[in-house]
Write a structure and sequence with these properties.
Blueprint lengths: L13 H4 L5 H25 L6 H19 L9 H9 L5 H25 L2 H6 L10 E5 L2 E7 L2 H24 L8 H20 L5 H11 L7 H21 L11
Antiparallel strand pairs: 1-2
Amino acid sequence: MARNVEKIDFDDDDEYDDKEVTFFEEFIQSTIAEFFGTFFYVFIACLVVTSGNLYSMAFAEGLAIACLCSAFINISGGMFNPALTWAVCLSGGINPLVGVIYFAVQTIAAMAGSGFCKGVLYQYDYQDINGGSTQWRGVVPLDKHDINAELQVTTLGAIITETMVCIFIFMVYLQSNMDSKGKNVTGPLAYGFAVTAGILIGYHASGGSFNPARSFGSSAISGFWDEAYIYWAGPFIGATFAGAFYRLVLGDSSKRLFMKD
């Protein structure tokens, strides 16, 4: 969360909590943190696709999120995801203006990270992985020993998968990093493991993105746009539900809109 609303402080430093947040900290420092966090996350997420291994991709992305969120959570909230930023805005965690700035910066940073991925790979290898873009695998081998056995997933099914897993990931973030009753030093780790679990769950059904910036950045640089709308529709629908659940029911008394007493 941007510190103008709530500083996530694991040290309970009352002296720091009472310190007035400066313009630099509220708008510039936090924006730079989101840029670098998103940049490194997308670079890692695109480059690890070269492994061609689901477990490598899931754990690389999840560990990257956990490390980066730990590094930047007290500066910007460590979100690196426009859909999660929307969920946090709905939950009352950040100023809407800061959320709009984050959205733009995260999208730009994602393109930069994907561009660096392209720069370190030979053109043939880069094209072979479609620039590391998330892609809807609507028809994939269900049994590697039987090429005729396939998993059939519709476009709607892919969107629902992205939506449901995003609700799971974003609720984990909100409850473990923003809620006064649940936040603790393991919050960023919980966020990272939620991303790992999400990719393991949804990789074959939807491509396992859960992050519009990650998908847009890699598609913009590679030119691979197949079913790109899935990775905007699913995450933002999921973010809306997660934010609403938190704001109406699951949030602490300082965030809930109703029944605060």
